[in-house]
Amino acid sequence: MTIAIIAVAAAAVLAALATGYAWGRSRRPRKDDVRDPVGQGRPQRLEPLTPEKKAERDEWKGRLFNGFHENAIAKGKAMARSDDEPAYFRLSILRNIVAWYEAETAVDPAHRDVDVLIAGDLSLPGGTTESNVQEIKALREAGLTVGLYHHPAYKFDVARPVNPKISHFIESDGGVVAVGRHDSVRARLAILRFPPSFHRLADTLPDVRSDRSVLVVNQSPYGYYGEDGPRRKVWDVAKVRENLRRWPGEVDWYSVGPAITEVMSRHHAEDLGGVELAEEPWYDIVAGDFPPHRGSDRDGVIVVGRHARDDKRKWPSAEDLRLCYPDAPDFRIEVLGGAEAAREKLGGLPDNWNVHGFGEKDVDDFLAGIDVMVYFIGKDAVEAFGRAPMEAMARGIPVVTEPRFADLFGDGALYCEPAAVERTVRDLVSDETRLRRQSESGRRTVRERFSAESYLNRVGRLLPD
């Protein structure tokens, strides 16, 4: 924020209010009129905002109040001056600029000293937030203090608040503190997660001084990598690289798993501009131990589970869907996360599917009721990690998935093509010895690769002293 920007914003608001006052003295308005907020001297009727104009105002307001004020103020002034905009819309724009200015002048910057700073978009509803939650738990159990800085991704909903799973720590744990845009922080280690957060930096950033900083690349730059090349760009590698050099400075890049390592080396080596990914992956983790999985009360029915965000990239083709999740009388398919994309691909869902929307059911309760997790995704999609299968393995639930995950999960899962899923599942659940052996193999893999202990060992190697 600069003094010039504040002065311009304040002058615009004061000029508008002064004009409205002059107009009011020259004519007694009717109760359904509103003073023209931008100086044209004409009364306008106060019409309620349409849903579209309300959404436009809220998006603009979100960027104004959540770190991206420079362009937001310029755009707000232009909208407030436009005769094409409704009067109430223009007035609300000016009110929000005044509110922003008052909030900025009331800020009292703080200084934070922490062991580990975690920065990125802390509002996300899915795996990125769960990864942050598990790392915070592990760090706190190890006695390390944690700072949390929310830097929303500009392309997403910047007005979305910090996820309650994360704000809970700030509210209940004195060893976890929030870092604001105007604050300064001294950290032994800074962990930046989710590169789209840094595709465009906020206009005001905290002063971060850290002994070591890392970026966890847990999102591929493009949504798809098919035979015809990458499609649906999510973030720009070169832009993020340059932004991080400006803030917070020198950063080591880590991939979250083999899939990201492969994508970055094959498609984005030139964009990295000399930055090398660390040899050791920054695996997601599950903090805590879980009792052995008991499975469902089958009564002759095999319960196959799938847990994923409802996105067409997360689902295989219609042909593979039918093979991976058989419409057989002794199979029941339990889905957590929604299945509208699958419904669209299949033209309707089979009768043996039972679907729970995203967040409708506790993950532990969901996993406790299945026998096997079957996890397949679209052929051109890149699954950065695969948190859902890992969470199942941590609880001793056998996982059947596709060979692309073999480097990540090793012998912790079973691998096959879609055509072999039904036979693989039947053979597994019909052999109690094999079922028990695979359950323990999954739990062992989690302990070795994806546990709080393995994570703290990694962090310990990066912390000074």
From TrEMBL:
The keyword Glycosyltransferase applies. Residues 328-444 form the Glycosyl transferase family domain. GO terms for molecular function: glycosyltransferase activity. It comes from the Bacteria. Its EC number is 2.4.-.-. Keywords: Glycosyltransferase, Transferase. Residues 27-56 are annotated as: Disordered. It is an enzyme of class 2 (transferase). Pfam families: Glycos_transf_1. The keyword Transferase applies. Coiled coil: none annotated. PANTHER family: BLL3361 PROTEIN, GLYCOSYLTRANSFERASE. This is Glycosyltransferase. It comes from Salininema proteolyticum.
